[in-house]
Amino acid sequence: MFTPLQVILLAVLTGWYIYQRMNLQMFNYASVVTMGVITGLIMGDINVGMLVGGSMCLMSLGLFGAGGSSVPDYNVGAIAGTAFAVAMGYTGEEALTIAMTIGIPVAALGTQLDILGKTSGSFFIHKMKACSDKKDWKGMGVWMWASQIPFVGFWVLPMILFTTVGSSYVELFVNSLPQWLMVGLKVASGMLPALGFAILLRQLPMKKYGYFILLGFVLSAYLKLSILAIALLSAVLCCYLFQAKEAQRKTNEAATVVAGGDMEDE
User: What are the backbone dihedrals phi and psi of residue 45, each rounded to the nearest 5 degrees, phi first?
Assistant: First the structure.
């Protein structure tokens, strides 16, 4: 199902994502979409990668590991879902359904892998602390870099197993699903992005800025504007409001300075 090169590239992509997420954190913006696109590029169908990555990105909106808690990792789910959907020859909405069927359990598995990775870190922390007590800064650095190996490995190893010895079992499982369940999964895959939006809206100050949601609805439902067009208009509106508030703030500061000078003169 997967060529050796694809297995290697998918494993490298997974390892690179985990490493930069825990260290650099330079590519986290829209990372779910990015993982889907890169996986689609590796598998030879970038359209499926964009579709799966975008859908899973909507599902992950408002979901974050507050205080170091572990949450489903939709980035790895997008990699696994896209890879298997393309490898099994699916396109369009069928590919999205298959990708969700595979990707969501993998994302949920990411919760346990994250806990396992963080638990393994306690061993290395004690080693680094011992080096620090002895002022062995070089040894402390060695243990710090060594701590990355098991953490990344806990994610890379399952991806390798999924795409090698486990690929036939995954394909057998998907092909054995009854039609009524596939229809249900297709409906669920369409509802989950809405759930992501709902989680995000719970965190936003809707009582203060909820009227912008109504504006977006009017632009989409009545003016038939695309999501990209609405996003661009929103960016323009945000820039205008920011500049207006900055101008108001400077005016208030200038008025305060003038008022203060008048009081000193008196």
Answer: -145, 85
**Where is 248: in which H helix or E strand?**
helix 227-265
Give the pLDDT score at 96: 84
Say which DSSP state 64 is in: -
Q: Which of 31-40, 50-59, 115-124, 206-215 has the highest mean pLDDT?
A: 31-40
Average pLDDT of the residues in 2-18: 90
User: Which two three-digit tokens encode residue 21?
Assistant: 């997420």
What span, in angstroms and rounded, lies between the C-alpha atoms of 135 and 140? 9
Cβ atoms within 10 Å of 164's Cβ, excluding its own: 14
pLDDT in tens, 65-115: 666 667 788 888 899 999 998 988 888 878 888 888 888 888 888 888 888
Angle at 145 between CA 143 and CA 149, to 5 degrees: 100
**What's the rounded Cα separation, in Å, for the pair 107 and 109?**
5
In the three-class reduction of DSSP (H, G, I as helix; E, B as strand; rest coil), residue 164 is classed as coil
3-class DSSP state for residue 224?
Answer: coil
Mean residue pLDDT across the chain: 82
| DSSP H stretches of helix in 60-178 | 74-87, 92-133, 137-146, 148-163, 167-175
What is the identity of the amino acid at 64?
F
Q: Phi, psi at residue 183, to the nearest 5°?
A: -65, -40
